[in-house]
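Final report, results section. Input specification for complex C-07:
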Amino acid sequence: MASVRKKTAIRKSRRVVVLVATRKGAWLYHGDAARKNWRADGPHFLGHVISHMVLDPRDRRTLLAAAKTGHLGPTVFRSTDMGKTWKEAACPPAFAKAADGTGRSVDHTFWLTPAHANQPGVWYAGTSPQGLFRSEDGGVTWAPFSSINDDPQYREWMGTAQDGTPDGPKLHSIIVDPRDPKHLYFGMSGGGVHETVDGGRTWRVMIKGMDVVEGFGFDASKPTFHDPHCLRMCPGNPDRIYQQNHCGIYRVDRPSDTWVRVGKSMPKKVGDIGFPLVLHPRDDDTAWVFPMDGTRVWPRTSPDGKPAVYATRNGGKTWQRLDAGLPETQAWLTVKRQSMAADASDPVGLYFGTTSGELWLSRDEGRRWTCIAQHLPEIYAVEAAAL
Amino acid sequence: MKVLIPGALRSYTEQGEAEASGATLAAVLADLDRQYAGIRFRMIDEQDRIRRHIRIFVNGGQVRDLSRALNATDEVVIVQALSGG
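Structure output:
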């Protein structure tokens, strides 16, 4: 399908707040209008593992933070005053109790997605181990959403904790079609990509065209063997979705349901393995990735110790290296799948946070990078929200 | 009965000790949750299992079974295991 460049009228830029979730707490970085000066507000929940913190774009007031501590079970905290005060969810995401002893327990809420613009107060959450939950009261109470948490086929596809990432298998990348609140997607690390068009009554698997790891005889027709890392829907074109997968970078243009690997044109020495993927707020041909080393033991660090963001401006046909301002050598950076974000300004601001506690910013779509915070704990997620 | 609360959970109770009642450990935890909403789920998961990094002692002996019967004079101690973090 031909690309659609939505020439949306450029709105006056709003100030940006960058929400940083870390292994030891959360921070809000408030930027000035030029995105040059940043004021740190934090830590919030010092010592808590914050997996994701999101500002509700529908009211630009409600903050949700998915939290746990090293010893305690998971919960979700909620603020309606930009973090001055927080209240804990009365009923955080939890699986149903199983009478036969096979029930699972949520280790942590991993991913938070606000629902459709026409559904104020509705949120979705993805958990580890994989589960899908929904709140209809702004994150105060949560309930399992649709049947997948306990559906025998989905449980088989999800595998066990040993089939997942080092800190547990995850349900992530919950996407809501801005045209239709019943049209959703999600990904599972080990479990593939799934779509509903009827609000979760039924789901279909969407793995055509995706590769599985070679050499082990994995059956590519089974969702279990597919490992999407991050899915993003183009804000300017909801029919186009990009995917950073364990095996490379892909794109699908609906109504086709076949993924095409667009990462093959990345330089061979760098490869197209990585975790985060970020899209331009208006141009569906533009995307940014942060490649990492996926060879042998999967270091997941910048290839050759030379960190770079790569951008495509033509839907993945070609990619350009963007590393001005980043360390040039002996810099073994890891950026988790939720730790890269774009704001909606013009030019687009890009942000990424590393597991070594650095927060980086580009005010010019990746041409030049500046480190705006250091010495933070391991960064788990970064979001850029407009105030 | 007296229930000693670990540091990580004092955001709920504000004190290092709480008073709770119940004929079993499960009932005592339910009473704690009634007084301090949400505290139980941080220690006990949705399948009613004690979470991996939490330990519960009654009169100095570790207890893993929530149906353990308790007397009003028993002392319950909830601790963070020497793990997690």
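The helical segments of chain B are 10-13, 25-35, 39-43. Chain B touches chain A through 22 residues (CB under 8 Å). This concludes the modelling results for the funded period.
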